[in-house]
């Protein structure tokens, strides 16, 4: 899929003729990235846990194929990627959500599943991609910046925030010439954010509009635009790219 060009990974002309697998592609950042891939004349394979949301996304975007399952099932995820026909050009993984549980209320089984399951999911994608993603293509993971400042309730999320850049850098060497990169997002105005904040959502939006250097809230389209840039710039690998509107520059 897509010719390989010297020094660019074959992506200088954009995504035309290329196939992007989006794991977590039925809502939020994944769905918006899928929309921008289609607008750039790329083809899609969509994976999501919620079958009904996935159907709605497929009705809008007309992917080559879809699959509804929980990406934390690493065996199924690895088999699914391995059984895709031919090679693909990029695999983006947005599945997963942060944990904000205080230590006193933390279920250790849940904590182990949240941390270990997220790492295992990305390792499964990387292992399957050695044969499935063309040389110069991309594995693109979505993480966060929230755990960089220690705070109560952020132990699991903070550990993942620290672990994912290291995982990304190591995998970039191990699966080369496939490229591996991480997007570390701050607050993004998605349905997941709305579900986590509930009736505090609008107050959080207003606080960010008032305090962020960019003067507005980061949306899924902002993150999707960065994702497409990473996919189409063949010189990028092993790196973490922050996108938070300057949130880390502002005192909490």
Automatic annotation (TrEMBL):
Sorted UniProt keywords: Oxidoreductase
Highest taxon, organism lineage: Bacteria
InterPro entries registered for this protein in UniProt: NAD(P)-bd_dom_sf, SDR_DHRS6-like, SDR_fam
Coiled-coil annotated spans: none
Keyword Oxidoreductase: yes
Family membership noted in the UniProt record: Belongs to the short-chain dehydrogenases/reductases (SDR) family.
PANTHER family for this protein: DIHYDROANTICAPSIN 7-DEHYDROGENASE
The protein's name: Short-chain dehydrogenase
Phylogenetic placement of the source organism: Bacteria, Bacillati, Actinomycetota, Actinomycetes, Kitasatosporales
């Amino acid at each position: 899929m897509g010719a390989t060009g010297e020094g660019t990974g074959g992506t200088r002309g954009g995504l035309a003729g290329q196939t992007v697998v989006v794991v977590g592609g039925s809502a939020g950042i994944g769905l918006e990235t899928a929309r921008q891939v289609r607008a750039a004349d790329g083809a899609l394979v969509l994976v999501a846990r919620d079958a009904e949301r996935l159907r709605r996304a497929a009705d809008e975007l007309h992917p080559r194929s879809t699959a509804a399952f929980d990406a934390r099932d690493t065996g199924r995820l690895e088999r699914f990627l391995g059984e895709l026909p031919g090679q693909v050009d990029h695999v983006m993984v947005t599945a997963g959500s942060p944990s904000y549980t205080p230590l006193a209320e933390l279920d250790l089984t849940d904590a182990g599943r949240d941390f270990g399951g997220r790492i295992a999911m990305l390792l499964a994608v990387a292992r399957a991609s050695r044969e499935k993603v063309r040389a110069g293509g991309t594995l693109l993971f979505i993480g966060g910046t929230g755990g960089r400042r220690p705070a109560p309730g952020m132990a699991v999320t903070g550990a993942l925030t620290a672990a994912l850049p290291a995982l990304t850098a190591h995998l970039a060497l191990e699966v080369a010439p496939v490229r591996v990169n991480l997007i570390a997002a701050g607050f993004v105005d998605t349905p997941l954010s709305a579900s986590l904040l509930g009736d505090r959502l609008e107050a959080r939006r207003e606080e960010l509009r008032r305090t962020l250097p960019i003067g507005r809230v980061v949306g899924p389209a902002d993150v999707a635009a960065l994702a497409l840039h990473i996919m189409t710039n063949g010189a990028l690998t092993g790196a973490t790219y922050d996108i938070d509107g300057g949130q880390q520059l502002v005192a909490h």
